[in-house]
Design goal:
The chain is built from three helices and five strands; from the N terminus they run αββαββαβ. The protein is an alpha+beta fold. It starts with a helix and ends in an 8-residue tail after the last strand.
């Protein structure tokens, strides 16, 4: 092994044993800090995501048009994703409209399906 590789392995072991974490963000930005700081931040972000998902879910559940729909909500940052099924395209539009106008929502991603029942008259 070359000297630079040995130094790199040694430094990695030291950083790992001290609880130092190096994070590379989606944007390519690199940040380093203590694991406990990231754990706290992660909990706060998770709590905020859960709260936003609960809020949007409650809004959808209160809507009389969507009572027979089966919609679950997940959130990450200000992006809300709707999962499940609705009975018509109008219901799908209604769910997306309600979600996008909810406080804290910047983007809505629909992963919903429209359930079309066969016409019994045909």
């Amino acid at each position: 092994m070359g000297r630079p590789l040995i130094i790199l392995l040694f430094m990695s072991a030291v950083l790992a044993s001290t609880g130092c974490v190096i994070v590379v963000e989606d944007s390519g930005e690199v940040d380093a800090g203590w694991a406990s700081n990231y754990a706290q931040h992660s909990r706060e972000v998770s709590d905020a995501n859960r709260e936003l998902a609960r809020s949007v879910s409650a809004t959808l559940a209160r809507d009389a048009i969507l009572t027979d729909s089966d919609i679950t909500v997940s959130a990450r940052g200000d992006t809300v994703t709707l999962h499940g099924r609705v009975q018509s395209v109008d219901h799908l539009d209604r769910a997306v409209d309600l979600a996008v106008t909810s406080p804290g929502v910047g983007t809505v991603v629909s992963r919903m399906t429209v359930e079309v029942l066969a016409d019994s008259a045909s």
